[in-house]
Amino acid sequence: MAADGIFLAVPVEPRAGIRLAVNDLLDTAGLTTTYGSAVFAEHVPSTTAESVRLAESGGYANVGKTNLHEFAYGVTSENPHFGTVPNPVAPGRIAGGSSGGSAAALAAGLVDAALGTDSGGSIRIPAACCGVVGFKPTYGLVSIDGCFPLAPSFDHVGPMARTVEECAALLEVIAPGFAAAELDSLEEIAVGTAWVDEADPLVSRRAHESAAHFPRSQSLAWPRPEIDALFMREVADVHRELYAENGELYGEEIAMEGKEDPDNRRDFPGGFPGDSRNAFTPGGRTVKEQRMYQWTRDWIRLRAEHSALRRGNLIDLFYDDDAYVFARQDKTETVIIAINRTDQEKLVVIPASTIGLKDGGELSSLIGLTTSARVTNGQATIAIPPKTAVPYAVR
In the chain, what are the domain boundaries? Predict the structure, then answer.
């Protein structure tokens, strides 16, 4: 095990290829994989994560497993078992997390590309801290098979590199069927920004400057989704039995999270794995959590059934406690997905201009329903049938 805090395990004889760092949350056959935890300090998987397998098949060579925040549950990569990941470009500062080791390996010039994982920022945060490029792909674009879960319906595997081009090249290898699109003009992409003014001033300014390069950029007054409780529930589900059997091997930060903060327990009723006084019981989701959980499942099912939903940009159009409407848009096609979790028909009005619809345009169901919507005065009113997730084609 390396003493620099970046690599936790390295192959005895790395194969030839583009040097690749692999986040230690991803299984590698025959090579120690700890998930950043003392519980798995001696764990050697018999199989390799699908993303790693694809990368190796595509010419990349795993040169080391990288350190991370314990169980990927944090944003600093200060690991109590294997040491703090250093920041090569800003000594004395954190490398970010949870995929801090992958970002640090790139920043130090030890590798040419890296694999990270991201549920709530774990690729993007360390990439920003270490001055490299990190990308969180669309959910399901890159396989998470062989990745230890943090919160399964939030988890992603994604590429990291020193340049955008190198990052895109790795993504094309680990996402079968994906290819970077060639654009004739930035007008082909609609860009929405939300919550930017809540960021630090410099971050906010850079976001606005970046968005300004796109002629179809607009600021969206979009409510922040309340998904924290669902996230916490999934984390607790993953760790409940593991913590019960190995609690003494958990780092204090994770084991004690939620125990000493009653406000945290109030806001996140799932608790953390160590909070036995407030742990979820099986099936104990709140109504709102259950809706969010079902929305995720509906979305995964629809993506599997309709190839159009696996391409293009994701654009949010409407959200409340009962319904969620969003669009998938690429250069040739726009598909709108409308989800209604109630027992009654739901009328939803969406801004047609956001997805390039003009008056007289029409939305038609892709699953045989007679329901449709016509655009008038820049608005489209959709009647979503009860307890239904409907994909609509834009005509």
Answer: 7-174, 186-219, 228-285, 301-394
Spatial distance between the Cα atoms of 140 and 131, rounded to a whole number of angstroms: 26
Question: Which residue, among 38, 11, 23, has the nearest Cα to 247 in the 3D structure?
Answer: 38
pLDDT one-digit tens code per residue, 311-367: 556 677 887 778 888 777 666 677 788 888 788 888 888 887 776 677 776 777 776
Q: Which fold has domain 301-394?
A: Immunoglobulin-like (2.60.40)
- Is CATH 3.90.700.10 the right assignment for the domain spanning 7-174? no
Q: What is the dihedral of CA 211, 212, 218, 221, to 10 degrees?
A: 60
Summarised one tens digit per residue, pLDDT across range 43-69 is 999 999 999 999 999 999 999 999 999
User: Which contiguous run of DSSP H or E holds residue 206?
Assistant: helix 201-211
Tokens representing residue 355 in the block: 């997805």
Q: Side by side, which strands form the sheet with 7-9?
A: 7-9, 60-66, 18-23, 113-118, 156-161, 133-134
